[in-house]
Design a protein that fits this description.
Blueprint lengths: L9 H25 L19 H20 L2 H19 L13 H24 L6 H19 L2 H26 L1
Length: 185
């Protein structure tokens, strides 16, 4: 039984998924240019604390929109997980991380942001695994295994290497959305 919807709204939902994922990538690229000193920090959320930080908040909401587009294309558990992931990204966009980072939480908004981040990690990877058996693309079949490794390595490896790996992980999340939406169209 398919987990991808055959509703008439497939085309607009694909556009929503692509637009959300695309805007996320564009905004992160712009933030890297506006705040190049942050490239060595694995915590992408700290971009929100500097110049143009609002772009990161919008980027998180955009990623959520990408997952919402995927939810519109999906059924049952896949749709539920996609909606929950979209909501977690929206919470990340609504609340900024504390300046001390993800290892220390000192405010309610920091706690909400950090909690939503961990929800995204769990939900996005669960979604990849639930959807994996129906994937046609070999990249969609291996991303559920590669993405968690990137997340852990990026979080724990020091310096620029960890930061680059962590950014590859975030990119893998939206690439997965685009490829999954493409298969649905």
């Amino acid at each position: 039984m398919s987990t991808i919807s055959t509703r008439a709204g497939v085309r607009p939902a694909v556009v929503v998924a692509y637009a959300g994922a695309g805007l996320y990538v564009v905004l992160l690229l712009v933030l890297h240019m506006v705040q190049p000193q942050m490239l060595g920090d694995a915590t992408i959320s700290k971009y929100a604390l500097g110049p143009g930080g609002w772009m990161l908040q919008v980027a998180f909401v955009a990623a959520g929109v990408g997952y919402a587009g995927l939810a519109l294309l999906s059924k049952r558990w896949v749709a539920l997980l996609a909606w929950l992931t979209a909501a977690a990204f929206a919470v990340m966009g609504a609340f900024r991380i504390d300046s001390v980072g993800p290892t220390q939480v000192v405010s309610v908004h920091g706690a909400l942001h950090t909690g939503a981040f961990f929800a995204v990690v769990m939900l996005a990877h669960a979604l990849m695994f639930v959807r994996r058996p129906r994937a046609h693309s070999s990249l969609l079949r291996i991303l559920p295994f590669v993405a968690p490794v990137l997340a852990v390595a990026g979080f724990f490896l020091p310096g620029l290497l960890g930061a680059v790996i962590f950014r590859l992980w975030t990119l893998s999340l939206v690439v997965w959305v685009v490829l999954t939406a493409r298969e649905a169209s």
